[in-house]
Structure formats: structure tokens, C-alpha cells
Amino acid sequence: MPSLIHVARPIHRICASLLLGPIACTVLSPSTSWADDEPPAPLEAGLPSDEALEQAGVVIGEIRIDNLDIFDTRLEEEDNTMFRLANWLHLQTRRETIEQQLLFARGERYNARLLRESERALRADGYLRDAHIQVTAVHDGVVDLVVSTQDVWTLKPGVSFGRKGGRNSSSIGIQETNLLGLGKQLGVDVSSGVDRTSKALTYQDRQLFGSRWTLSGEYDDNSDGRAQKLALERPFYALDTRRAGGLSLRNERRVDSIYSQGEVVNQYDVRDRHATGWTGWSEGLHDGAALRWMAGATFDERRYDPLPALGAASVAPDGRRLLYPWVGFSWVEDQFIATHNQDQIGKTEDIALGWNVRGQLGASSSRLGSDRSAGVFDTGFSKGWMPDPSQTWLLAGSAEGRIERAGLSGGLFKLSARWYQRQSAQRSLFASVSIDRGVRLDPDQQITLGGDTGLRGYPLRYQSGSGRWLATIEERAFSDWFPFRLFHVGGAVFYDMGRTWDGALPGDSAQGLLRDAGFGLRLGNSRSGLGTVVHVDAAFPMDGDKSIKKVQFIVEAKRSF
User: Using the 8-state DSSP alphabet, how is residue 50 labeled?
Assistant: First the structure.
């Protein structure tokens, strides 16, 4: 735990950050870090290979943490007043915050796999831009290591806005994703979106009291209700983790809307209560894979009521109340690659190529307090392939629902495939297709298609139905342009097409196949903890009714290119 002195010391820098943060956030919200976007070269030549070190049975000696600030002022191009000010305002990640995430320790036998897995864990942190772990020296049966990381700007005060599907969204607030350099998140936000205006307070601590436990909480005061969420979990944080478990609670009241052709056709009040407790165990990693078992219990209640203000225009569906025990499993293969310029710009990306399969099966009964007897299932998988160094295929699918006396209810089946063809270091061809199919869907499972679900030239939630498919092909360009050493700039030309089917209301799927084409700018964002790619697109619809605008302008931050 940090002392009061340690906490008090940076207060003046926090205050300065709050005053100057909007300027820094504007400047720093995008981009890079190792001098030429490549990991550092080994510090010493002629070091033994990983295989040789493991066979020799060497043990780990010194572990040095080399954490760079946001800007490396040792580089002439980053040694200026603005960048030095940003570094001074920023509270650097503490050594112990990084050390607590490492899967190895001094005195243990050297295992290269644990180094690579620790790198992936560090890169997954929103407050680190990159991470590499290397051998620096071998002597007397001991190997010394250096953990090289780089911080990003994590204090994000200011105003943001976005536009997609013909609708605007905005937010104002402040969020710190690396509070006092301890990796904790704290945020206050006021946002206005399509469905509601929200005031939110969020907190997350992924290293509770220096442990592997994660505590997260959220309180939302919305224009249509309130939401409280609390979770305490110890996840399977590594492939060789043997024990896990947790508890999560959610209590929410809101207004849900049903859409047809981009317009609201029904609204009703929702009271949503959910609680899950679980425990998990595993024998760890064997033969390149980890098999994990889980058992738990879930309470899931949804109550729907008509809105008095809408009178007969508000029709509420039937609710549900389920309390059921369940068992589950997951099987994860240890097959990962690190790459660049796939879904990000100028940033190391970790891609899972191995099988990742999960399943969960529960049984509800009126004897346990449920309003029906049902078998509840939730399954999923993902897998990747690299037929050659220039191609990557990623496949994913999921299925969830309930088997009741009347048959399958709340059934939702999803399948998606993504393909990347690297044409050069600066160009790639991307294609994707996804199919969703619903069976006796619950009210909260409406399947829609529009500007908010990947069909960029159309209003949000323009089509709806019990199923949909969407296909995209995109030519991507990754430039060397690095203006002010702040933004990695890219671009894309795209074509989307898709449709829904079996709509519940007249006109839901009447427009048939919908197509659009367009182009856009991409701004890589790796100097800040946003961890996103800013999209600025112009999309031109090729189908639909006459009410659709001839061009849709989209501005949004996404997790991928």
C-alpha cells in the first residue's frame, strides 16, 4: 500500500494535470513510442537461445524494470517543451504495479513462455503502450532480465463527440485509468446518446491490495432510470492459473426501445436484476493447453411494464425470473502471435490463433424460485489460422438460450469470420462476414442492422428481424506519416452489404439487401489510454427508401481499424 507521503507528493501534479489536461489530451490522444515502432534490440549480442537457457536449467536473477515515460526525451525529435511538460504532468506507473503482473520471480527457473505471456498481460493494460521482456546477461547459471514498458497519457478530462447512423452522441467528464501510477481506474462522466442521457461514476482495481483480485463498481444516474453494478473476481489470469472465482451484482432500471426502419415503435420500462457467484479450478497448462472447470449459481430477473405516459402505445412483453445452478468449462490453447498494422496502427497486437472453447449449462426450476423450468446454455469458441505469413483467418461463434417446455426460447446463435491479407508493410486487404440467428428472442435481444452495427451508410437500427447477415470488404492503408510525432495516420476504402429477415413488424426487412460504399481516415491512438482508432468516414448508401440521406458522415472511436 502506498504511504500518505507517496500519495501526497504528486497532488500538485494532479492539480496541474486537471488544469492543463484538456490541452494535453487533445495533443496526446494519439500515437506511438519505441523509436521506430519496433521492440528494442537485445542489449547484448551472442546470448544463448531460449531453448538453450531452459535446457541448462538457469534461474532468474535480477529483474530490472525499465519504464519509459510517455515521450522518450532521449530522442531529439521528442525532446521539446511540450513533450517534457506532458511527462512532468503524468504520474508514471510504479515499479510494483508492473512487478505484480509478472508471472515469474527471482530465483525461479527460466521459462521463455512465461516471459511472452507476461508481455501479453502488460500490453493488455490500458495504461501501458507496449511491453517487451528480454535477457540481458547470463552468468553462473543465472539469467538477468529487463522488462521494458512505456506509459501512455491516462488522465482524460474534456469533451468528446461522435456521429454514426445519422445520430450524434457526446460526453463530458474526467477519467483516470492509472490512478497514482497504481493501475486503478476512476471516472466521472456525463454522456448523451441515442437511448439516454447518463451520469456515471466508475471504479476498477485489477490488483486489489496487491493481489490478483479485481474489484469494479459503477453507478449510473440516467434520464430513464438508474443502474448499480459491483463485481469482485479472481480470474484465470494466466494459462497455468489453478484457482479462480467471483461474485457480480447488477441492479438496473431503464427504458428499452423497439426499432423498425430506424424509428422507435415501442417503449417500455425494464427492471433488471442479476447476480452470479462462481468458483473455478484447473490443473494448469498441459501439452500446450489449459482445461478449466467452473461451477456457480445465477439469479436473472427481468420485469417489463408499460410506460403510463405513452398509454396504449406502450406494450410490455412478459418478463422472466430464473434462479439456477450451473457448471461450465473452458479449453484454451497456448498459441499466440505478435504483429503490427492489423487492427491497430503502429502498435503491437497480440492475436490468439489457438482454440478457445467455452461452455456453460444450468437448470432452473420452480422449486428453486424460478417462474419456469428450463435448461440454460451459453457456449462459444474462437480459432485462428495463418496459412502463410501474409494471411490471417479468425473464426468465432457463440450460442445461448433456454430449453423450455415449449421449445427453445431466447436462442441467439452467432458466427463470424475475419480475413486479413497483408499486401505490403503499408497495405492490407480485409474482409469479414457475420451471421446472427435468433429463435423466440427475448425482448432485450432485438437483432437490428444499421449504422451502429457495421452498415455505415444507413441510419442506426434501420432493419430488424430474427436474423441478419453482414459482409464487409476493406482496403487498408498504413502510412509513415507521423505528424508532430503524435498521430499515426491511415485510411480505408470500404464496401458493406447485408440484410435482416423475418421481421416482426411490417417493413422491418422490406428493403431487402442493403449496400453502401465509402472511404475514411484513421488516426492511431497509442499515446493515450483510450487505446482506440479514431474513424472519420463518409459512407454512401446504394439502397433503402428515399428518406435516407445520400451520404452519412461518421465520427467515432473504435477498438480496431
Answer: H
The rounded distance, in Å, linking the Cα atoms of 423 and 429 is 7
Which residues, 6 or more positions from 427, have their beta carbon under 8 angstroms from its beta carbon?
475, 476, 477, 478
String of DSSP letters for 341-376? SSSSSSS-EEEE-S-EEEEEEEEE-GGGT-SS-EEE
Half-sphere exposure of 179 (CA within 13 A, CB side): 15
Q: What is the pLDDT along the chain (561 residues), one digit of tens a residue?
A: 444 444 444 544 544 444 444 444 444 433 333 434 444 444 455 789 999 999 999 999 999 999 999 888 898 888 889 889 989 988 999 999 999 999 999 999 999 999 999 999 999 988 998 999 999 999 999 999 999 999 988 887 666 665 655 566 667 778 899 999 999 999 998 888 777 888 999 999 999 999 999 999 999 998 888 999 999 999 999 999 999 999 999 999 998 887 777 777 788 889 999 999 999 999 999 999 999 999 999 999 999 888 877 777 678 888 899 999 999 999 999 999 999 889 988 788 999 999 999 999 999 998 888 999 999 999 999 999 999 999 999 999 999 999 999 999 999 999 999 999 999 989 999 999 999 999 999 887 889 999 889 999 998 888 888 999 999 999 999 988 888 777 789 999 999 999 999 876 666 666 789 999 999 999 887 777 665 788 999 999 999 888 888 999 988 888 788
Please give the domain boundaries of the chain with CATH numbers for all domains: 31-151 (3.10.20.310), 468-561 (no CATH)
Q: How far apart are CA 334 and CA 357, in angstroms?
A: 13
Q: Quick one: cell of 120? A: 501479453
Longest dimension (CA), the chain: 82
